[in-house]
Amino acid sequence: MRWLFAAMAVWGTIHPMYYFVSWFQANTWDIMAMVDAWHANDAASGLVWDLTVAAVALTVWVIYEAVQTRQWVRLVAIPATFCIGVSCGLPLYIFIRMSKARAAGG
C-alpha cells in the first residue's frame, strides 16, 4: 500500500507541474502573476484557500508527529507541500510514515 502513496506523490508532482510550467511558458515567469491568476474569480480563490488550509493542517500534523517520534525525515513533506503542492506533500508524508511504521514493526 505504501508504494501506492509513493506513486501518488510522483503523480502529484508531475501532473500539477505540467500545468504550472505550461502557464509560465505561455505567460511570464513571474510568480506574482501566477498568484494573481489563482485569484481570477471566486471559484479559483475558494480552491486556493481550500488548498492553503489543507497545507497548513498537514504542516501542523507533520511537525507534531516529527517532534513526538523524533523522526525528522518526515519534515521533508513540508517543503514538498509548499514548493510543489498538497498533491505531493500528503501522499509523500503518508509514504514516509508507513515506511517508518513498517521498519519499526508496526
Automatic annotation (TrEMBL):
**Keywords assigned by UniProt?**
Membrane, Transmembrane, Transmembrane helix
Q: Which Pfam families match?
A: DUF2834
InterPro entries to which the protein is assigned, alphabetical: DUF2834
Residues annotated as transmembrane: 6-26, 47-64, 76-96
Q: What is this protein called?
A: K+-transporting ATPase, A chain
Q: What is the lineage of its organism?
A: Bacteria, Pseudomonadati, Pseudomonadota, Alphaproteobacteria, Rhodobacterales
